[in-house]
Amino acid sequence: MTTQFIKVASLVPDQHHCNLRLRVLSVETIAETVHPETGKIIQSAEAIVGDDTACILMNLKNDQVNLLANNARLRVLNGHVNMYRGFMRLEVNEEDEDDENHPRNHVLPQEGSPSLSSEPIGR
Questions:
Q1: In this model, does residue 44 exceed pLDDT 90?
Q2: CA-wise closest residue to 76 among 27, 53, 109, 123
Q3: What is the rounded CA–CA span in Å between residue 105 and residue 28?
Q4: Which candidate, 74, 90, 86, places its Cα nearest to that of 8?
Q5: Which end of the chain offers a freer environment for a tag, N or C, measured as fewer CB atoms within 10 Å?
Q6: pLDDT digits (tens, 9 = 90+) for 69-115
Q7: First-to-last CA distance in the chain?
Q8: What share of the chain is helix, strand, coil (3-state, %, to 5)?
Q9: pLDDT at 14
Q10: Predicted local distance difference test score (pLDDT) of residue 104
Q11: In sequence order, what are the beta bridge partners of 114?
Q12: Residue 60: partners with Cβ closer than 8 Å, 6 or more residues away
């Protein structure tokens, strides 16, 4: 079974199991916090990502943060859309369990995607 990818413009609030091909337009915030119970350092970041149809703010954590660089291409598997202060945010949680019908959540580098041109994406 092949993975079906959708466009950012088709996302709706509270949508789950989203597969997208995206480009990082800008990295907005990168922060490190300490988990209060475990003491583990948690990296988190926000980035504006998009495709040829629209842009969205994306939250990333830990190893996902290392994939962020301007114009980096990403492949998001099994993401979900949350509403925060009236705006949609794309998230990919590392903690979600495997599901027979949906692949494990991932953010992966995307090399040479034909669906994303090398030209800048307009806002």
A1: no
A2: 109
A3: 22
A4: 90
A5: N
A6: 888 888 888 899 999 999 999 998 754 343 444 444 445 555 544 33
A7: 33
A8: 5, 45, 45
A9: 94
A10: 45
A11: none
A12: 44, 45, 46, 47, 67, 68, 92, 107
Query: Lowest mean pLDDT: which of 14-18, 20-24, 68-72, 74-78?
Result: 68-72
Written as six digits, the tokens of 21 are 């091909």
Question: Can you say whether residue 118 is alpha, beta or left, with left for phi > 0 and alpha for psi between -120 and 50 degrees?
Answer: alpha
**Assigned token pair, 84:** 């925060």
State the maximum Cα–Cα separation within the chain, in Å, rounded to a whole number: 45
User: Cβ neighbours of residue 54 under 8 Å, at least 6 residues apart?
Assistant: 7, 8, 9, 11
15 residue type, one letter: Q
